[in-house]
Write a structure and sequence with these properties.
The protein is 62% helix and 0% strand. The chain is an all-alpha fold. The chain contains 8 helices and no strands. It has one domain. The longest helix is centred in the last third of the chain and has 28 residues.
């Protein structure tokens, strides 16, 4: 894989042949590992109750909540029947994941307000601890990826 084929680098708008591109190439392994992490979180071998399509929809939603329209569109393309969840105006009731959507939104957009009560609400809704961890992994990865993209844009003088 060439480093410039990663989601983060594509979303950041890194142009081939620029000084930033050259700098990125010296750290290609980091970007390849980031791409591998994306695959592990969005398309794991054992997705638990969170299908690949649902994960893509939640990733698109998180990207939208963070004003990353291009990244959101990339993930929404894989959301299938869950595509409606990419819109933060959807509460997840149509898909039966209201509690999950509320939790993911809060973690993505109001991280400081997340508390043990939010985990308890998921547990009360029947979400197993391992599946809560899966949701947190997805949100944590997106937070990392979005920050990497923003940092690369700043370094390259590219606006979102």
């Amino acid at each position: 894989m060439m480093a410039l084929e990663t989601t983060a680098l594509t979303a950041a708008g890194i142009r081939p042949g620029t000084a930033l591109d050259e700098a990125v190439q010296t750290r290609a392994g980091i970007f390849e590992m980031t791409q591998d992490a994306e695959a592990s979180v969005l398309r794991p071998q054992d997705p638990g109750p969170w299908s690949h399509a649902l994960r893509a929809a939640l990733a698109a939603r998180i990207a939208t909540l963070n004003a990353e329209a291009g990244l959101a569109a990339r993930y929404a393309a894989d959301a299938g029947d869950f595509a409606g969840l990419a819109d933060p105006g959807s509460d997840g009731s149509e898909q039966g994941v209201t509690e999950v959507v509320a939790f993911m939104d809060k973690v993505a957009a109001k991280t400081r307000d997340v508390s043990g009560a939010d985990i308890s609400a998921l547990q009360a809704a029947g979400v197993a601890d391992a599946d809560i961890v899966r949701l947190c992994e997805l949100n944590a990865f997106l937070a990392y990826q979005i920050r990497v993209i923003a940092g690369l844009r700043l370094m390259g003088g590219v606006s979102a």
